[in-house]
Design a protein that fits this description.
The complex is a heterodimer. By secondary structure, chain A is an alpha+beta fold. Helix content of chain A is 49%, strand content 13%. The radius of gyration of chain A is 30 Å and the shape is extended. Chain A folds into 4 domains: 52 residues, no CATH class; 41 residues; 230 residues, no CATH class; 116 residues, no CATH class. Chain B is built from 11 helices and no strands. In chain B, α3 packs across α5, α4 crosses α5 and α9 crosses α10. The chains are: A alpha+beta, B mainly alpha. Chains A and B meet through α1, α3 and α4 of A and α1, α3, α4, α7 and α8 of B.
Chain lengths: 512, 198
């Protein structure tokens, strides 16, 4: 009996290739002479193979962030009470707490508030200007003014897109792409405007003059936080308008194609006033986007302190020749993105996101943005120039919207690409949207399909097309599309089972 | 590529060399606290998976995994580079799982009867479960001392030597427990043989 068990154990270890040479020879001899042993080996093999069919737990991309927060909170909590408190002490504490709660009914709220402050503090740590973290160039600032996109890190694979929806409300999106954001719009602009080196230097210095103003507008840190100052939208307009005024002065005849009527003296004065006012305005309210929450809070960015820190770091680097540490930044949003309803009261953000975009609509934005009538006054000029600029700088797409479709034209390698997107197109990734007010994104019945009321889906679509066109052959693209179609059908089936109504009409084929 | 395939891609265990772990730990000891995050990133999924499979419950996986890494963080500066980092890491993981199971067993004793009933008794009927679920549920019915070596061998692909170091027991014991674990698992899965093979 004992020998049988030993043989079986050897057989099991034989399967795992964990025997010595002698043991292996012994088992192989046994196997050769016994059908029963052979059957046993087959049985054990089947059981072992079941291990390959076990699913692994889904990945948790936010684990490190939470872990580091827990470690930090433990470090700061040096006077932690002992784990085991005598039962009598517990009873006394309970009674004391009951009395305190009776006398201070709002205490829990206070504790909750304190916790929120602690969490906000964690996300605010080491915030530094994106200007430094992403090493912004003049090309980036120009691109921000004309294409609304601002890189968030040095790799240029994460970027911020700011804009207005059709009702004029501000929104921003944090996007990621597999290729670096490098549009080359600035060079296109310089070539199209026929600017010589000296003139380019003038434009460079104008862009450079916004460095300080832009410095405090977008802050990032290694805790995956992006802090956005509500004045960012105004700053973008100011850079845009300032560059228009400069462009007109530098080459009037070429500029006429952007703004045929030219810029009046009054408009120029308004632009200068708006620019000056903005450069001297610094709001202390920020919108914080973190991996698991979006909130607004006060934050004072101190440029002097930042400069000192940079100086100190540079000295340290020089003295010790230490390795320069990059700020690595990668926003990955939690699939169980949660926030609390009471926190959202009064300033509801509307959040929608898919695999590479997180979009935040800020309907009550004006409540805390610095009001600048000068900026509102130059809006028509900016709008007119925006409509015409794509003729001029080829890398800036032309977007036309109508009730039923959005048409986009953009230029690449001297060819014009034109896409028409039907409004009823369904975006697989953006199938769901969480509205303000304590919604849990993993609870399907609280989702509703994204309505294409602006160009978010369009730009996403353009990005996908662009991406696939560059990295896949037509055949590969077709295969991907077929797979997508299959997924769409399965999704429709699922959606039907859940009794959620969605449109599933297919887009028109993009034409060249 | 469908979403399930994508998930599987993401969860492929990474090839991690001992030397790499050592150099990261040295960076940490030299004062580079960010090196710890690199270490966590490399090993967290395997740690989470061992916890998940051992407990067959995903509610506490991240809490226990966090506990594991906090223990590592507090003691990493004393690491002696005499054995693989992963041996130490997985040993702590296994011990935290055992602690949790022990706590749960104590809690069950003090819980009212209706709360003490195994949840698995009420789970989805067999015909509606997928193979992964059936096998995971069956593994969770094994005694802890058979469950752990079996998970480490047949799911995580550890060698007997690694299992012996992780569980702090003799190689012969590992060999015997893996065999007994497989036998017991076969017995538990006997009524579901059709679903599993069909």
């Amino acid at each position: 009996m004992k020998k049988d068990i030993r043989n079986m154990e050897l057989l099991s270890a034989y399967l795992d290739d964990e025997l010595t040479t002698e043991e292996r020879v012994e088992v192989e001899k046994l196997l050769a002479g016994s059908l029963e042993m052979q059957k046993k080996l087959e049985d054990l093999k089947k059981i072992k193979q079941l291990g390959n069919r076990v699913d692994r737990i889904p990945e948790s991309p936010f684990f490190e962030t939470r872990l580091m927060a827990a470690i930090d909170s433990q470090k700061s909590d040096s006077s932690r009470t002992r784990r085991w408190v005598p039962a009598t002490a517990m009873a006394i504490i309970t009674i004391v707490v009951m009395i305190i709660m009776k006398l201070n009914p709002g205490l829990f709220d206070q504790v909750w508030e304190d916790q929120k402050v602690a969490l906000a503090g964690f996300y605010k740590e080491n915030l530094q200007p994106v200007l430094l973290a992403a090493n912004l160039t003049n090309e980036d600032v120009f691109n921000f003014a004309f294409n609304n996109e601002l890189p968030l890190d040095d790799s240029r694979k994460q970027y911020l897109l700011v804009g207005y929806d059709d009702s004029g409300k501000e929104f921003f999106e944090i996007r990621s792409s597999d290729k670096s954001l490098n549009r080359g719009s600035y060079n296109e602009f310089v070539t199209a405007m026929n600017l010589d080196d000296k003139q380019k230097q003038t434009v460079d210095s104008i862009i450079g003059s916004y460095s300080k103003a832009l410095e405090s507008q977008v802050l990032v840190n290694e805790n995956n936080t992006v802090a956005i100052n509500p004045n960012l939208w105004n700053i973008r307009k100011a850079i845009f308008a300032d560059l228009l005024v400069a462009a007109e002065q530098l080459n009037k005849s070429k500029f006429d194609r952007i703004v045929p009527k030219g810029i009046s003296e009054n408009e120029k004065v308004t632009v200068v006033n708006a620019v000056n006012k903005l450069k001297n305005t610094s709001g202390d309210k920020y919108i914080f986007v973190t991996p698991d929450s979006i909130f607004e809070d006060s934050f004072v960015f101190d440029p002097v302190l930042m400069e000192k820190r940079i100086e100190w770091t540079e000295k340290k680097i020089k003295a010790n020749e230490e390795k320069i540490k990059e700020v690595t930044f990668k926003v990955e949003f939690d699939s169980a993105f949660r926030y609390y309803s009471e926190e959202m009261k009064g300033h509801p953000f509307t959040v929608a996101f898919d695999s590479n975009i997180c979009r935040v609509d800020v309907p009550n934005f004006k409540a805390y943005r610095t009001e600048l009538p000068e900026i509102a006054a130059i809006d028509p000029l900016i709008e007119l120039a925006t409509n015409n600029i794509h003729f001029y700088a080829y890398k800036i797409p032309k977007i036309e919207k109508s009730n039923s479709e959005i048409k986009i034209e953009y230029y690449n390698d001297d060819s014009v690409y034109s896409y028409v997107v039907d409004y009823n197109v369904i975006n697989i990734d953006s199938i769901v949207q969480a509205n303000a007010g304590g919604r849990d994104l993993i609870t399907l019945d609280k989702f509703k399909p994204v309505q294409p009321n602006d160009d978010t889906m369009l730009i996403k679509y353009q990005f996908d097309r662009d991406y696939y066109k560059r990295f896949y052959s037509d055949e590969e693209f077709k295969k991907q599309m077929e797979e997508l179609q299959k997924e769409l059908q399965e999704l429709s089936k699922d959606v039907n089972n859940q009794k959620i109504r969605v449109h599933t009409e297919v887009t028109k084929t993009p034409k060249k | 590529m469908n979403s399930i395939d994508k998930d599987k891609d993401l969860q492929q265990p990474q090839l991690v060399s001992v030397e790499d772990d050592y150099s990261i730990i040295r960076q940490f000891i030299d004062g580079d606290k960010s090196a710890f995050q690199v270490l966590v990133k490399r090993h967290k999924e395997k740690v989470r998976n061992i916890i998940y499979l051992t407990l067959n419950n995903n509610s506490f996986v991240d809490d226990i995994a966090q506990d594991v890494f906090i223990t590592i963080y507090k003691n990493l500066k004393h690491f002696r580079f005499e054995s693989q980092f992963t041996t130490w890491l997985y040993r702590i993981t296994v011990n935290k799982c055992k602690d949790y199971i022990r706590r749960m067993n104590v809690r069950k004793i003090f819980s009212p009867l209706d709360e003490g009933v195994e949840v698995s008794e009420y789970t989805t009927p067999v015909e509606n479960k997928d193979v992964s679920r059936i096998v995971t549920d069956a593994i969770s019915k094994l005694p802890v001392k058979l469950r752990m070596p079996l998970i480490l061998k047949d799911i995580e692909g550890f060698s007997y030597q690694e299992i012996s170091e992780t569980l702090n027991c003799e190689m012969g014991t590992v060999k015997s427990r893996i065999f007994r674990g497989r036998e017991k698992l076969k017995e538990i899965l006997q009524p579901m043989e059709k679903e599993l093979m069909g």
